[in-house]
Amino acid sequence: MKIKAAFLWDESFLWGLMAYDALMKNRLPFDLIRSEDIKNKCIHDYKMLFVPGGWASNKFKALGDEGIEEIKNFIANGGRYLGICGGAGLATLDGIGLLDIKRRPTKDRVPSFSGRIKLKINQHPLWMRLESKTFHTITNSLDKEPIFHAWWPSQFKVDDNNINTLAFYGEALPDAFTSDLCIGDIIYNNGDWHQLESSYGINLNPSRLYGEPAVVEGSYGNGKVILSLIHFDTPDDVAGQLILKTLWEYLLEDNFEYIKPDNYFAPESIHTKHRGKCQTIINEIFNIVTDLMNFGTRNFLWFKRNTMLYQWRRGIRGLEYCNLYILIKKISEIYNLYSTDLRKIVHLDDEFFYHKLLSIRELLLPFCEKAQELLILERIALQNGHITYEKCNDPKIQSIRSELFSTSKSYGGAYKKLINKIDYLLYNLIKSKN
Q: Rounded distance, CA 68 to CA 71, Å?
């Protein structure tokens, strides 16, 4: 019986890790898969495909024509699709095309909203399931507009009457941000959104989100598709995690078992040849990337929003640095778990991890050194005028940016090579853990 979800890991990075932690915390059943697995038709062993956040365009490229066709066939034949943020964007007409929805172009939307926002709920069986779970009590929402999190989402343009909008955006909360501006601070001080938008060159006013679709449902062939621009997987969001559990129940039709607590395994099966060397390198690369994050903090370029996400100043690539830090931090945490509780490992091949760690260290050290040089230059440029992470008149800044990230909005260059190696190692660590 098809009782599990397939979790597409590719091109998700910290968003995939955020979703992974939320699902594990709630013991929801899933298997991690990659695009290559989908191309090899493994998806047909499951009832649902779950796609977390991340650049939809990069996910599309990773899947290729073959993977896209497999997903469409899977859903058309009765499968389920759940996409969050970038995973939602992947299913629109701008991506795979599971639903007749387009994403609004940047000039017509608020491209840099992040934080808490109210939802206006429509009648739907999904929400009806929550009544018995004290949903409104958990959200502390007396006006029945529950509060969740959106992290730099796209916006949907829905013209198809067959698509059901489960929830619309309500009012943004004062502690949310639009670009690097705290919404409550701007409103409290009678800030002029029009003037700020003229200065920043993008839409900033959070009221532009009000009434826009946030969670939608539709059909593709015999399958069901739910797309959410809300991150129900946000760390420590109790109400959001309740929604995740309810989505699993709704889309898998209650036909699944929760994951059992971790089993313990005998240490005889563990490879130990390079354990000490691996631990040394992990400590080294974690210290390198921690120094980079501390560098940005003390130069007032970013600060922590929650356990996984930072807020950065407009003009720099804060999310990319955050990706590096959070993924390497997770590698360190998992490997330390392996080192202190050997019973939790089944097939951890230290030979494999040792050589992968060496290649990461070789790329990480020069990248972080160059990144610090770039960040100081960008900080000075921010003092002297308006820049974005794409545009700057300083030729040295442009040169280093091109080297580290390329000129692609969704990044490339040395960063892409590095983050792919880190992501591949983390994926294999997690698979070993499970």
A: 5
Query: In sequence order, what are the beta bridge partners of 177?
Result: 114, 182
Q: How far apart are CA 8 and CA 117, in angstroms?
A: 27
Return d(Cα 403, Cα 398) in angstroms, integer: 9
Alpha-carbon distance of 153 to 117, in angstroms, equals 12
DSSP string, 276-326: HHHHHHHHHHHHHHHHHHHHHHHTTSEEESSSS-EEE-TTS-HHHHHHHHH
Name the E strands within 233-286.
none
Q: What is the mean pLDDT of residues 54-82?
A: 97
Instruction: Look up residue 14 and give its two tokens.
Output: 């910290």
308 closest CA partner among 236, 368, 238, 416: 236
How far is residue 13's CA from residue 326's CA, in Å, rounded to a whole number?
9
The pTM assigned to this predicted structure is 0.93
Bridge partners for 5 per DSSP:
30, 48
CB atoms inside a 10 Å sphere around CB 12: 27
Contacts of 130 (CB under 8 A, 6+ apart): 242, 243, 246
CB atoms within 10 A of CB 191: 15
Instruction: Give the tens place of pLDDT for each residue, 214-245.
Output: 999 999 999 999 999 999 999 999 989 999 99
* 264, 340 contact by CB (below 8 A): no
Tokens encoding 180: 């690097």
246: nearest Cα among 330, 167, 161:
167
H-assigned helices in 145-192: 183-188
Class of domain 5-114+122-136+147-165+211-251: alpha beta
Give ∠ CA 337-327-295 in degrees, rounded to 5: 110
Is 210 in contact with 162 (CB distance < 8 Å)? Answer: no
Give CA 61 to chain center in angstroms.
17
Share above pLDDT 90 across residues of the chain, in percent, rounded to a whole number: 75
Domain ranges in the chain? 5-114+122-136+147-165+211-251, 267-433
Q: Which residues contact 162 (CB under 8 A, 6 or more apart)?
A: 100, 218, 219
Q: Is the CA virtual torsion 326, 330, 333, 335 positive or negative?
A: negative
Judge whether 217 and 166 are in contact, CB under 8 Å: yes
78: left (phi over 0), alpha (psi -120 to 50) or beta: left
